[in-house]
Structures are given as C-alpha cells and as structure tokens.
Amino acid sequence: MNLTISGHHLDVTPAIREHVEGKFAPIERHGDHITRADVTLVVEKHQHKAEANLHVAGADLFASSESDDMYAAIDALAEKLDRQVIKQKEKRRGH
Description:
This protein is about 40% helix and about 40% strand. With about 100 residues, it is an alpha+beta fold. The protein has one domain (about 1-90): Double Stranded RNA Binding Domain, CATH 3.30.160. A four-stranded mixed beta sheet has the order 1-2-3-4, with helices on one face. It is elongated. The two termini are about 25 Å apart.
C-alpha cells in the first residue's frame, strides 16, 4: 500500500508520520487489495481534522474526523477506515 501523508496549515513531523503509519498498519493487514491511501491533515483555528481516501479493488473509501487533538483525530480516522475496509472485504467475499 502506498501511503501519502500531507498537511494543510501543518508541518508533518516524523512523530505524526510514525503515528499515522502505525495506525494504518492494521488496516493494511486486512488484505492486499488496498492499493493507495492518501491522508490529509488539516488545522483550522483550534480544530484538527484528518481525512483519508483509500483506493481498494472495486471501490474508493473516504473518511474524516475532527478533534481538538491531532492524534485523537488520526485514531478516530483509523477506526472508521478499519470498519469500512472490513465491510468492503465482506462484500467482495459474499459475491
């Protein structure tokens, strides 16, 4: 899986990059059908927002989350994407 991390009004530090990669590792273990993940981290006033697009075989998945803390936003984003990937995987298996 190709993981692209970008920041809007935010410098992506090595610590943030490591945290995102660590949270996306379990998602990657669900299968090799995930080809690319684009993560955008945004800071607007006092809100931290994390958005991601996942390109999987047969679909494109999108999720976003907001929080007062960037790490909490990344954690919530990873949980949402994990549920979506599992649901997509079950759909593929059912067909």
